[in-house]
Amino acid sequence: MKKKTMILLTAVLCAPVGALVMFLNRPYKPVSFTVDGDQWSAKTVDGGSLLLELHNDNKSREWSIVSEPETFVSDYHNIAENISEFHIIALEDGNGEMVFQCVKDDGSTDMYTLGLSISRHQKTNLQIDSITFKISGCLKQGMEEKLTETAKEPRKIGNAQGNLQGMAIYSSCPFVHEDSQWELQIYVQEDMLIDGELTMDDSCRFLIQAVSGEDSYVFLDEMIQLGIPEADIWEDEQEKMHIVLRDVRTARYKVSDFVFNPEEKKFIGSDVLDGEGINYIGTTGK
Fold first, then answer.
1. Are 70 and 91 in contact, with CB atoms under 8 Å apart?
2. Is-above-0.85 flag for pTM?
3. Over the stretch 5-54, which tens digit does the pLDDT of each residue have?
4. How is the chain split into domains, by residue range?
5. Integer CA distances (angstroms), 35 to 61, 131, 133, 162, 172, in order
6. Is CATH 2.60.40 the right assignment for the domain spanning 34-141?
7. Is the model's pLDDT at 4 over the cut of 60?
């Protein structure tokens, strides 16, 4: 009788422990949800990534990112007739804000802020918990107003893999920096590349990245209308690596300088020249 009682007591005590172990080791299930706003919509995918759709009214608006946080980045950008779509991926848990610029046909510019709250689950899984998207400032063409302080913050480009599906390499520049092999690469849509020559249509997706070993840093990934972006690499007198991006399109001429920080393994960027709402005419380059 005592033996049966002990067996029963052991079973009763083990059952809650077993249930607790199963609860703690249950597989992580990401939560997906959609948030709709005025002229925008956002949908989480697999918990840690996000599709942000911004209305562009028959391509009358041009959306771009001017500031990224450390907690999340955009790895590619697609443009359709009425929608500009940004794919956002979470990098770290915490709160962060990404600043967007919207240039309209009349030359006016609005600034918008995407805010995300990200949590971490079972050490390796990131979950986007909340989404906000709101206007944060505006700038009229010809006015000497300054952008918000958030938009002035230096851009940081961290290690992130670009989406190369449907892309082909157009040009590259291999180089050595501090005994490490690097390569600066420009990818374009593979259906736009014929025998190594770029056959420009109305618009083309470009991706510019620097790679070293398994690390990659994406500086641009966008559909660009009537323009070809370029990138240059150089070292200053202190042997710091600079990658200069020249973003050229019909209504923009922007030059951005990104300096590599080896301690953080990030590029810190700032705009040297930012011409918005301009009329780009042409170049002497081939």
1. yes
2. no
3. 555 555 555 555 454 445 445 566 788 888 888 778 899 988 889 999 98
4. 34-141, 154-286
5. 22, 7, 10, 26, 40
6. yes
7. no
